[in-house]
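Extended Data, record Two component sigma-54 specific Fis family transcriptional regulator
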Amino acid sequence: MAKILIVDDEVGIRELLSEILRDEGYDILLAENATAARAMRNAGRPDIVLLDIWMPDTDGITLLKEWAANGQLNMPVVMMSGHGTIDTAVEATRIGAIDYLEKPIALQKLLAAVKRGLQRPLAPGAPAPLTLAAFTRSVPLRELRRRVEQIASSSRLLLLRVGAGSLAELVARSVHSGRVAWLDLAAIAVPLDINQLQATQGGVLFVGELARLSRAQQKNLAFAVDRLDRYDLRLVAATDRSAEALLAEGWEEALVSRLFEVSLAPPSIADVRDDLPELASQILLHLVEGGEVPLRRFSTAALNQVRNLPWPGGYAELRAAVKSLALGTLEEEIGAGDVRRLLPPDAAAGLIGVSFDQPLREAREAFERLYFEHHLRLEGGNMTRLAEKTGLERTHLYRKLKQLGLQAGRRHEEN
């Protein structure tokens, strides 16, 4: 029999609805707030959800948006409210709810809504790409989402000033909601033509790092920039280079000027380290919902280890690691041992720490080596940023790295 999740903060309503629906032969799951609803939805996999709008921790509309944003709105949702308005009902329907019931809920309307929902065919295809909207508990990511949306409402072009640990792709996926066409210009080696732009109309063009584009790809980029308005396109490009550095490498001045008109410096993986467990968990959930990996979940210990890794490759590296862990783990729970086993040896080594069974001087040197290796990876060898991060004067920093036998990244200093 179908499984129904009832989400309402009023115990009387939960009991009444569950009693009615159990008498009809349905299996019932109950949640008193959004936090419980998230857990119950992930564990219980309900066939339909009855979702109250007004709840104390997170309201139903916000939870509905969250499910839609991270690809979890693959079950019918019926909204319920005792203080509903037409605008609220319209918004809920626009986000993806299939029906709207006003309290007190009439028996026949309840049963009819449930029946319609269960008869509704599932939407085909993979879930919409993961966006910043999925990360509701992270203050930095919520603020970043608001900034991106504000810029995207007024500009078709956004340059992301990033370094190691970039969240560029996640940001780019967030300038549009829902499923839109996506074209990675760095993946196109041949001349770009009008047909490709027409096929991407209304969507997003993306460049993960400007400095990696060949001369031919730079021409493709210029061709696309001139036609953003015509094809209702938005361009999100990322780089850790300055405008002067790109000009010195032979970029056209007009294109560089256009690219640097509107820029944003988003946080890196290092800046949102405390939010890495949520980031990894949402990525895993999205992969499961899309059928890319089997049902898996992270243990608390595994998430702690994920938090402590540097992720110099940023969001793309984190997503690839989560997918590898989900596919390579034999049990349903991904444990700390799986992280150590499946991640690269140099990354896993950083989790081991420093042995206490050695003299203080050697332990201190071992810790300092791990510390500077970590930040060298994190900053991509950029010595200016490394000096700022570690709080060391440049001459002292070079001397310390030499003492530890580490290579200073002089060629990155001016980037």
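Summary. Residues 273-348 form a domain with the Helicase, Ruva Protein; domain 3 fold (CATH 1.10.8.60).
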